[in-house]
Amino acid sequence: MEKKKEWRKLAILLASIGIANIGDFVYLVVINIIVFDMTGSAAAVAGLWIVSPIVNICTKFWTGSFIDYRSKRAVMMVTYGLRAAFIALLPLAPNIAIIYSILVCLSVAQSFFTPASMTYTTMLVPVEKRKRFNAIRSFCSSSAFIVGPAIGGAMILATSISWTLWANALFFVVAAIFLALLPKAEKINQATVPKLTVAQVAKDFTAVAAFLRNHQYITFIYVVFLLVMLFSFAMDTQEVVFTQQVVGLSQVEYSLLVSITGIGSIVGAAVLALFANHIPLRHMIGSGLLLMTAGYLMYAFSWSFWSIAAGFIVLGLFNVFVNAGMATFYQNHIPVKMMGRVTSMMQLGQSIFQILFILAVGVMADWFSLRLTIVVLALAMAVLACLFAISVFRPGNRPFFEDQTTNEQTGQQAR
């Protein structure tokens, strides 16, 4: 009976996150159309990639300090509400400046949501269920990647962009309602909540730095993983140009490739959800990252639709293994008392490097060629993935990947 109640809570959390994920992808389709229709500029559309990293740089210094001392569920619900409100305002925006202002506000809400969501999930999901939960969550995210754009496109054809956005806002309202059905999972003593000051943020920054120094292997694994994902992100930003101008595919063929990648991710997530408890965590992470990188290498050296499709299927299949595995590793080793701060600081660094990578890739593509740029990125990604896998599979590091390792054990030194 207790197990049924526990999985009921987790199912509600998955429903909330899954509905919001669909909303995110519907929004992504519509906002690209709006910006391109208003400006006719590919550069303005490309600017959408920059908004979130820039906002993260401005907010991640202090979001963790806010989140860790307050109700994570409440933060998530408020951000859902804000996202619904701002998306509903988009059809009323008279010009591109207002559109981008609303996008900044949406990115601020998202910058609070991600650390709060990670921490709340860690508190709600028992350690022995984290692998399977993260696998099912990956399945939901992968499905949203296919379902969201399909819903968005169908709604635009059936109604209009404005009505699609207003309906999209309801996804986040429903997600907030589901979240309201869940327990708080923590008791907040308002009297002990520190004020959000520069001194408090500096103190929290020092605490995070000390934790990362004291847990160097955990820091190494997560930082290398983020670096590999940065190479992946840099290649993704040039995906449309590479497939169409370098390989010579049509817009229809590119759209089909995106669908193939999504289907590969859904299949991988479904397999992982079924067999998560039978796959060791270090194989999910180490082997998964190597195989995902192999998919990017196939993509970098591709010459036709089917050669790219093969690479996309491989990276789609194993991307979910890596993400679910790393989410589990992170939840098992970062103390919940400071998870918001650690997540925010990590994302701060990630955002800084995302912008640098986007600029560097653009410069490299202009100076040399896009093919050479993508090949260099894929090879660098492969080297990092090999170093990562060697470290993960080293026998002495096995205890870090035991399923029963808890963040409470890791956090004994963290205060």
Automatic annotation (TrEMBL):
GO molecular function terms listed in the Swiss-Prot or TrEMBL record: transmembrane transporter activity
GO cellular component: plasma membrane
A Pfam family recorded for this sequence: MFS_1
Cell compartments where the protein resides: Cell membrane
Keywords associated with the record: Cell membrane, Membrane, Transmembrane, Transmembrane helix, Transport
Sequence intervals crossing the membrane: 12-36, 42-62, 74-92, 98-118, 139-157, 163-182, 217-234, 254-276, 288-306, 312-330, 351-368, 374-393
PROSITE patterns xref list: MFS (PS50850)
Chain ranges of the Major facilitator superfamily (MFS) profile domain: 9-397
Listed InterPro entries: Bacilysin_exporter_BacE_put (IPR022324), MFS (IPR011701), MFS_dom (IPR020846), MFS_trans_sf (IPR036259)
Location (main, coarse): membrane
Keyword Ion transport attributed: no
Membrane topology of the entry: Multi-pass membrane protein
Full protein name: Major facilitator (MFS) superfamily protein
Lineage: Bacteria, Bacillati, Bacillota, Bacilli, Bacillales
